[in-house]
Amino acid sequence: MCGQSECCGPQTNVLLYACSGGANVAEVADRAARQLMSEGLGTMFCLAGLGADIQGMVQTAKDAEMNQVIDGCPVDCARRIFERHGLANCRYIRVMDLGIEKVKGARCAHDQVDKVVAKAKEVLGPACKG
Amino acid sequence: MKTIQILGTGCPKCKQLAENAEAAAKALGIQYTLEKVTDINKIMGFGVMITPALAIDGQVKAVGKVPTVDQIKAMLAGN
User: Fold this and answer.
1) Which conformational region is residue B47 in: left (phi greater than 0), alpha (psi within -120 to 50 degrees), or beta?
2) Which CATH number characterizes residue B14's domain?
């Protein structure tokens, strides 16, 4: 089970979804989402649950104020999942668009995570109340 | 017979959601059962991580917010 239940929900209903692939760009996406969550800018949610069509998770994304989606590479798996569900309340970032190369077997670096976090804050704009 | 489930551990919003759901069902004049699901593991079993949430006949209809009576009436009518 992914995530934690919060009674009466979080202060902001911005949900964060990250690529869950095996390459470094997925690790960057994941760590950036966790960093945003730790700064109180949103709540990280389970991309796999959406991909698996878990009905309650799909409804959660539908009812979110905003879904911030962080893809790793141009395959855009996360974006495709959201598009398949017809969800318009989304903003997208792709890690590789920020000049971070996809290298299998490599680990992510702090400055790469910082770059994605900064971009997410810019993209979220007014939805980001933290 | 509609099965209405309020998913939440009992906060004020959960109680408001239960009141709205009951008012909606009564306004429509339908037969219903209303269950408050407070067990966190059962709530997560719905794929719900933010409460309050509303399920009708096992389908999650709203998460992390309290729909109005009219909105719930539409959910009950369209379910």
Assistant:
1) left
2) 3.40.30.10
